[in-house]
Design brief:
The complex is a heterodimer. Helices cover 51% and strands 16% of the residues of chain A. Chain A contains eleven helices and ten strands. Chain A has a four-stranded mixed sheet with strand order 1-4-5-8. A four-stranded antiparallel sheet of chain A has the order 2-3-7-6, with no helix packed on it. In chain A, a hairpin with a 2-residue loop joins strand 2 and strand 3. In chain A, 55% of the residues are buried. Chain B is of the alpha+beta class. Chain B has a four-stranded mixed sheet with strand order 1-4-5-8. Chain B has a four-stranded antiparallel sheet with strand order 2-3-7-6, with no helix packed on it. In chain B, helix 4 packs antiparallel against helix 6 and helix 8 packs antiparallel against helix 9. The chains are: A alpha+beta, B alpha+beta.
């Protein structure tokens, strides 16, 4: 498969680009930030996502979705990134759906119709510390009667405050550091014992600390197999990480575009600053880094869709490379904007903030660089 | 199975059955490359591999069959490359004829020129060198001064080229000459001639690596015929339009040099961990070096993906025409950093310049050689200028 979008994917790209730019540009983010919206995103927009078919991208056709793949999810996410569109798309329609795809029919029947309709929001309760360490999950799920009792804390649960269901990774055996012994659960957020404490993040998204105090769920809540949660978690993480890489890429590309535009119009010393070689070389280097990042993201998504055994390696490469390139893009962006880059009025700072949040989502550059070393056996 | 899956299976089986075992060992140095030509020298397995691949047209798999190619589609050629890499088959032929002149002839050559020059290139019978750079012209290539004066049925060439890779070993040269002194870009012609012509001399240049792939090349009243037979002109495209050919060809050269970033073992850490040492967890026990190597793994894998994407979009006509400049820039900068790390991983041992243990200082010589990557074929700074002007459309062209 050639490493560029095919005609159908390009059409999806064009409609996603037009939709985000028209319905949810950066001004939309500002609007929801400024009115202190408690969820941080527009439920009406989420409905429109559904009307566009985006919410069902990874859901099979026989279940009412579009039956598409990670490449297509990435196409939408890149435009989300480029416009800083606030939405639960990544947690719900990408990582959440991918986890449920590994689960039983009853769970899919319960949640997919709401997701497809743009009514249901999912969030991922994975991280327990300040850094992403899924191998160190220690939250306990103990057997009780026909089901399980959950006790523990999760944090950085993006959209956790507004979610209808949480996908919770907990330990049914073994201890932190063991690969096996994890189990994933679908937990309704109105279940007794679930308490959520939401906070607005630097990028104006809202994430929750979630406390589970003796939350009981029945066996139907298990996604996949008991003690074999790493299989489902891996699917969820691959989808979430490659998706986050695609969104990050969009942030970097959007940030680069507005910076190029800015230096083409801003004069200093009687010259357009874009004519200065010192800036030209730096932004051309950035262009090169962004192009390479784009290739890694598409490659990772294609490999996931093909079911390649090397997909996981490429997902880490993509998350790390997109993270590095986009971090460069937003830093150069603010610097090249000069003083106005520090003002709230200009958008470049918003790109820097979204990038910082995406860096921490599902593993930063260092985390994935270490994974690459481990996957290479050293 | 789809047609492509069938092709992949058949190709893998054919390579497995036909590639000599010596051609499936990693190369140990630059002299393991096969360059062909009139005075070719071959190590065991090399000639057999070249001949068998050339017979299938697979030295140039995507060229048309009538010019010695394999007539493969883009997708098939990509699969052949992937299967050769998977089975660790060496390239049967290294050739400026394939990488640079061939694509230019396919694009600009007449039918007679293609039929005359391309098949011998595909078979590795003529070794070509490139007469581009001149003393003092540097990256301002179009300032070249070597003159070709029209004498009716032939041209007379005078001047000097520099950095002519392997000129001392080449049979023919593709050479930029000045045919109009009053024009800069529109006074250049692209000519093909034999290096055994009277008046052509070469002199190797010793580099900091102690080796001399490059030469100075001198032309002293060299007579170049206008035709090598019916319709086979020595000038490609038209007189005074050689810059168009040169620019097209530079795109190919830049993509080729950029390939340096993707060759060799993917993971430096996997290669050097045992040599450097491992800790109780099995990790490479120099944590800073481990981190740098993992970063380099990411850069190399990322660049490989970029190279694949570039190849696909280039062939489909979907990439920006200046994109080869970005590939050249990125690939050469990565390759330089990669060789710095290889030296660092090797520690004191690879410093031995003249010893059997280091195969004559091969690692160190390769490291020094890579420093030219971001200078030859246009410097990194020139590449960045081109990106700025032609892709990002920044002001001040």
């Amino acid at each position: 498969m050639p490493l560029y979008l095919n005609d159908d994917q390009q059409m999806l790209h064009d409609s996603a680009a037009e939709f985000m730019k028209g319905e949810a540009p950066v001004a939309h983010l500002r609007e929801f930030r400024d009115k202190q919206c408690k969820d941080g995103f527009s439920h009406a927009l989420w409905k429109q996502f559904a009307e566009m078919g985006f919410t069902g991208i990874l859901i099979g056709e026989e279940e009412g979705g579009l039956g598409l793949g990670h490449v297509e999810a990435g196409v939408v996410l890149e435009e989300i990134g480029r416009n800083l569109t606030p939405s639960p798309f990544l947690t719900t329609a990408v990582a959440g759906v991918e986890a449920l795809n590994a689960g039983g029919k009853a769970l899919r029947d319960k949640y997919f119709p709401g997701i497809i309709a743009g009514e249901t929001v999912l969030a991922l309760a994975i991280d327990e510390g300040t850094k992403h360490r899924p191998d160190q999950i220690s939250m306990a799920a103990t057997r009780e009667g026909n089901g399980f009792k959950l006790d523990g804390k999760k944090q950085f649960v993006v959209q956790g405050g507004s979610a209808d269901m949480l996908i919770v990774a907990a330990r049914t055996s073994g201890s932190a550091g063991d690969e096996k012994g994890l189990t994933l659960f679908a937990v309704d957020t109105n279940a007794p014992g679930v308490s959520r404490d939401s906070a607005r993040l630097v990028d104006s998204a809202v994430a929750a600390h979630v406390q589970f105090d003796g939350v009981t769920v029945d066996a139907d809540a298990v996604i996949g197999e008991v003690d074999d949660g790493d299989t489902v978690l891996r699917r969820l993480l691959n989808a979430g990480r490659s998706g986050a890489a695609a969104e990050t890429l969009g942030v970097g590309a959007g940030s680069m575009d507005i910076t190029v535009d800015y230096i083409k119009g801003r004069k200093q010393f009687g010259e357009l600053i874009g004519s200065f070689q010192a800036l030209q070389h730096r932004i051309s280097h950035l262009y090169s880094e962004m192009e390479i990042a784009r290739a890694t993201v598409l490659k990772a998504q294609q490999m996931l869709d093909e079911g390649s055994s090397k997909a996981e390696l490429m997902v880490s490469v993509a998350k790390a490379k997109a993270g590095k390139a986009t971090a460069l893009s937003v830093k150069e962006g603010v610097q090249m904007h000069g003083g106005v880059g520090m003002t709230d009025e200009y958008d470049i700072g918003l790109y820097m903030k979204r990038d910082r949040a995406l860096q921490e989502f599902m593993g930063d550059v260092n985390y994935h660089t270490n994974l690459v070393a481990e996957m290479h056996g050293y | 199975m789809s047609d492509l899956e069938t092709f992949r299976a058949e190709t893998a089986a054919w390579l497995e059955a036909n590639c000599p075992p010596e051609m499936r060992e990693p190369m140990t140095g630059e002299d393991d490359a096969v360059w062909g030509g009139r005075n070719a020298t071959f190590k065991p397995g090399q000639k057999e591999w070249l001949n068998i691949m050339a017979a299938k047209g697979w030295t140039v798999p995507d060229w048309p069959k009538e010019y010695g190619g394999g007539g493969l589609s883009r997708a098939e050629a990509k699969i052949l490359g992937q299967e050769m890499a998977r089975l660790r088959c060496r390239s049967p032929l290294s050739s400026f004829g394939i990488w640079m002149l061939g694509p230019a002839l396919l694009h600009f050559g007449t039918e007679a020129q293609k039929k005359h020059f391309l098949p011998p290139i595909a078979r590795g019978e003529i070794r070509w060198c490139q007469g581009y750079s001149e003393p003092g012209s540097g990256s301002d290539l179009a300032s070249l001064q070597t003159s070709a004066v029209d004498k009716g049925d032939h041209f007379v060439i005078n001047g000097q080229k520099i950095w002519t890779s392997y000129a001392d070993k080449a049979d023919w040269i593709f050479c930029l000459t000045r045919t109009d002194k009053n024009e800069k870009h529109k006074g250049i012609s692209f000519m093909l001639f034999d290096m055994t012509n009277e008046g052509v001399t070469t002199k190797p240049i010793v580099l900091i690596s102690g080796q001399s792939a490059f030469c100075e090349t001198f032309f002293d009243d060299v007579k170049v015929p206008k035709e090598y037979g019916e319709g086979v002109s020595s000038v490609v495209y038209e007189v005074n339009k050689g810059w168009d050919v040169a620019k097209y060809l530079l795109g190919h050269e830049r993509s080729m040099i950029s390939g340096g970033g993707s060759e060799g073992a993917t993971s430096l850490g996997a290669k050097f961990a045992d040599q450097v040492g491992r800790d109780a967890m099995g990790r490479l026990d120099d944590p800073m070096l481990r981190a740098q190597m993992a970063e380099m793994d990411i850069e190399v894998l990322a660049f490989r993906a970029m190279a694949e994407r570039f190849g696909d979009t280039f062939k489909a006509g979907l990439c920006h025409p200046a994109q080869p400049n970005m590939m050249k820039y990125a690939g050469t900068e990565i390759n330089k950093r990669r060789h710095e790390l290889i030296m660092s991983a090797g520690g004191s041992e690879v410093l031995e310049w003249e010893s059997d243990a280091t195969n004559g200082g091969m690692t160190a010589r390769s490291w020094l050689r890579t420093k030219a990557n971001s200078i030859e074929g246009g410097t990194s700074e020139v590449m960045l200028n081109v990106i700025s002007k032609q892709i990002l459309r920044l002001p001040g062209a």
